[in-house]
Each structure stands twice: as C-alpha cells, then as structure tokens.
Design a protein that fits this description.
Helix content is about 40%, strand content about 15%. It is built from 12 helices and 9 strands. It has a 6-stranded parallel sheet with strand order 3-2-1-7-8-9, with helices on both faces. Strands 5-4-6 form a 3-stranded antiparallel sheet. It is elongated. The protein binds zinc ion (ZN). The site of zinc ion (ZN) has 8 residues, from loops.
C-alpha cells in the first residue's frame, strides 16, 4: 500500500494535506482529546479552553497563562512527519496544508507560511478580545513572568487570549472558506493524524472527493472516512510519511544502502 501511495504522490500535482494532533505527538505535544489527553487528566483544562469561563473568570485566565508558559510546544521540534511535508512542498506538489494544530510546527519545519491554513489559529500569538490587536505570545508571557498574572491589552485594557479558537468561539469564516476552496482544487487529499470528526473542517474531505481527488488517510485510529478512502495507512505517522513522500527511485536507492 505504501508503494501505491508513493506512486500516487509521484503522479499528483496539487496535493492538499489536512493535519491534526496526531502529527505532533511525535514532537511531544499531547493530543488533548485522546485517552492520554489533557482533558482526561485535568478537568480544569476544559474550563480554560472554554471562552465563556475564560472571559468571565480572572482565576481561569491566570491558570491559563501559567498553562501557556508550561506548554510542551515551546520546546517541541518538528518531527520526520513534518519534514516529510516540507519535502512535498520542495517537490512542488503541495498545493496547501490545512492544519487543525496551533503549534506552528509546520512553519518551523520549513513549510511556507502562505501555504499553511490554520483553521484553529495559533498559540504563538495573542489577540485582544476587545480591540482585536494581535502580538507575539512570548511578549505576553514575559509580562506574566514579570508578575502580571493576567496581562491586559496595552492598547485598550481588554482581555488577552491566545489567538486560537476556544470552545464556544466561532471559526473564522474566511479561513474556512479558503480551506474548502483549496480542497476543491486537490487531485490528491492526504488526511494525517486527524480522526476527521470535527466539522466543518472534516467536510474538506467530501469537497475534495466530489472534485475527483483521491483520498489517503494516515491515522493510528479508524476514521469515519476509512471506507471511502483509496488508501488507509496505519502505524507511526513519522515513518509512514517519510516512506511515502520519498520518490520511488530514491526510495529504491535508499533501501540498498
Ligand atoms: Zn485591545
């Protein structure tokens, strides 16, 4: 099956990739929905990720800032799965990279920021809930370290939050529209490390298929789209991706070494 998918990638010209938490677990960033997820281990985490509690309760915000400072994402490095998608872009095959992740590891790995569509935003930026000001997260974290336990917006005094989509918050329509648009332009759609259960993002799969794209799923757990996919690859995402993005000829050479 790996060989078949490698051939499809060799033939494809407009690959659209959708990534979820599964691609970042090899970088040490836990999947908060999974069985080992933050939610299961810490019920407060659920409150902190809910916009209503966040806006209403300064204590929830103070905990959120502490939580952001200790995030494993700050020291996380891209893994071979991320690097494989950079290789795909270097081969001029990557049309767009839609991600549900907020860690920016795709950009850190070397994918062009303009190809990455962050449907859930990024944790590396803050935004003001009152005036919409955006700034680097690290600057806000410096203020927390210096003693401001819930740093307000310097422009308007409003509440700052990571520039991500919390529960209870609307997705950004322009971003979702763009994701659906690129999905419709795909000739091969790769869904990686996502259970494809979160809508409307999972709907990108339907759009790509309707437009005639082949669907390849790389995920450890079953997804609702496994039955309609041309290929489903289980196992380590890092290993599977590294194997399938290497052109067939190079792969044959490498196996001889
Ligand atoms: Zn503001």
């Amino acid at each position: 099956m790996i060989d078949q998918v490698r051939d499809w990638i060799d033939e494809a010209r407009r690959i659209v990739v959708l990534t979820g938490a599964g691609i970042s677990t090899d970088s040490g960033i836990p999947d908060f929905r999974g069985p080992q997820g933050l939610w299961t281990r810490n019920p407060l985490a659920e409150k902190m990720s809910n916009i209503h509690y966040y806006l209403a309760d300064p204590e929830v915000r103070k905990l959120s800032w502490q939580n952001r400072m200790s995030s494993p994402a700050w020291t996380a490095k891209p893994n071979p799965g991320h690097l494989a998608l950079v290789a795909l872009e270097k081969r001029n095959k990557l049309h767009a990279l839609i991600t549900q992740n907020i860690d920016e590891l795709h950009q850190l790995a070397g994918n062009s920021p303009e190809r990455v569509i962050e449907v859930h935003g990024t944790m590396r930026r803050v935004m003001c809930m009152s005036c919409g000001m955006r700034a680097p997260m690290q600057k806000a974290l410096d203020r927390v370290r210096a003693g401001e336990l819930d740093p307000p917006c310097r422009d308007c005094g409003g509440i700052l939050k990571s520039d991500t989509i919390s529960f209870g918050q609307q997705l950004v329509p322009e971003v979702i529209d763009r994701a659906m648009q690129v999905a419709a332009e795909a000739d091969l759609f790769l869904a990686i490390g996502t259970t494809l259960q979160v809508y409307p993002v999972a709907g990108a799969v339907d759009i790509a298929r309707s437009a005639g794209a082949k669907l390849v799923i790389v995920n450890a757990q079953p997804t609702p789209y496994d039955d309609v996919a041309e290929a489903v690859l289980r196992g380590s995402i890092s290993e599977v991706l590294s194997a399938v993005v290497t052109p067939a000829r190079e792969s044959a050479l490498r196996s001889l070494q």
